[in-house]
Specification:
By secondary structure, the chain is an alpha+beta fold. The chain is 37% helix and 24% strand. It is built from eight helices and twelve strands.
């Protein structure tokens, strides 16, 4: 790694802190989905920084969770050397400075991970949008996904289609209405039977898993969160899957 890249990594690390899973608990929930047509489960590695990424093995998933820890000016200065003009413009269009910070952190973080994995300058990586908006790299040998919510970001990297989501676990007054509009009947029934914090936890379990899944397939909102269903506790698994996406056993999931 040359001195210039070391300086960029250090500046980003000062501006964006890595979140540990114990710290994440109680504040946010993150979930990932992986198209994994192999026996067993993937090896999941939580990175201490995005610059620690490397080319994943076929059975490996790398995840980085971060939180902007500086003001907008410092974070922008750290992120701009990593981003292309479109990514810079996307962040600038957001009205709230906190949202700008998380957008910059997420897009710069994913480029740092990709650059470290591919051993190329992060800004030089050509990222384009697929048919339904999923960000992709030419060639298809490396897959990634990113998500951000105010104050937190999540990035996943794998050798097969992957999706990730992160949400703040706020108690919603209209939770039942949101579930009725978005979730499968199985999820709605499970939520109706839950109470208090357990109900909020289950809601975000279903929400983050669903968002991660539709990102992994690349269909996004067109797939519909009510076209599949998950287990409500224990290891997350599909109990029913969107037609055309194989059997539930094709997919692996995890919740942070």
């Amino acid at each position: 790694m040359d001195n210039e890249m070391q300086d960029v990594n250090c500046a980003f690390s000062r501006a964006v802190a890595t979140i540990s899973v114990p710290r994440l608990e109680g504040e946010c929930m993150a979930a990932w989905a992986l198209d994994y047509m192999r026996p067993g489960r993937p090896r999941v590695e939580l990175l201490g920084s995005p610059a620690q990424a490397r080319m994943p093995d076929e059975d490996q998933l790398m995840v980085w969770l971060g939180a902007p820890g500086s003001d907008l000016g410092e974070l922008r200065a750290a992120a701009i050397p990593l981003l292309d003009p479109e990514e810079q413009a996307t962040a600038a269009r957001l009205r709230n400075p906190a949202d700008q910070r998380t957008s910059l952190a997420a897009h710069a973080g994913v480029r740092l991970m990709l650059g470290a994995a591919m051993d190329v300058p992060p800004r030089s990586i050509p990222i384009h949008r697929g048919q339904h908006g999923k960000p992709l790299i030419e060639g298809g040998s490396l897959h990634f996904s990113l998500a951000h919510v105010r104050g937190a970001v999540a990035v996943a990297l794998a050798r097969r289609p992957v999706g990730i989501d992160i949400e703040r676990k706020a108690a919603l007054p209209d939770m039942a209405a949101v579930a009725a509009a978005a979730f499968a009947p199985e999820a709605q029934r499970a939520l109706e039977a839950a109470q208090g914090e357990a109900r909020t936890e289950m809601f975000y379990r279903f929400w983050t898993l669903g968002e991660a899944f539709v990102k992994a397939t690349g269909l996004g909102v067109l797939q519909g969160l009510n076209s599949f269903a998950f287990t409500s506790e224990g290891e997350p698994c599909l109990t029913r899957v969107t037609p055309g996406w194989g059997s539930p056993e094709r997919w692996r999931f995890g919740v942070c």
